[in-house]
């Protein structure tokens, strides 16, 4: 069984560590960066099966990042923003799925499932 390689883009060190530890518990290999520019460099230099990114990043939004990544790379958007206000733009930019950040660490089974579904769909 191959371990899926995730890139987590989260500017909060605390939440980034919490999410990384939790996702590793679901047998994902997880690298963490804190900004979109770092994410783009990481994707260009490493094999990545899925990007999980915060909506609000220091250098741009997760939606802009999704637009700049390869179309074949699944992107899950973590947000506290109401989905209705960003959904159309996000989907047009290539976002695969959304996860609301309320109690996200307590609901890692949902996040892990969405990542797995996105990775499988991206491989087809």
From TrEMBL:
Top-level taxonomic group: Archaea
Keywords, sorted A to Z: Phosphoprotein
Parts forming coiled coils: none
Ribosomal protein listed as a keyword: no
Keyword Phosphoprotein (UniProt): yes
Signal peptide: none
GO biological process entries: phosphorelay signal transduction system
Boundaries of every Response regulatory domain copy: 5-116
The protein, known as: Response regulator
Species: Haloarcula argentinensis
């Amino acid at each position: 069984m191959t371990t899926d390689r995730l890139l987590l883009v989260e500017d909060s060190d605390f939440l980034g560590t919490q999410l990384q530890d939790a996702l590793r518990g679901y047998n994902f290999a997880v690298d963490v960066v804190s900004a979109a520019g770092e994410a783009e460099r990481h994707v260009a230099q490493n094999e990545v099966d899925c990007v999980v990114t915060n909506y609000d990043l220091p250098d741009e939004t997760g939606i802009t990042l999704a637009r700049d990544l390869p179309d074949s790379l699944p992107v899950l958007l973590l947000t506290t923003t109401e989905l209705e206000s960003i959904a159309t733009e996000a989907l047009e930019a290539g976002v695969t799925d959304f996860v609301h950040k309320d109690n996200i660490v307590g609901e890692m089974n949902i996040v892990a499932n969405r990542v797995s579904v996105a990775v499988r769909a991206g491989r087809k």
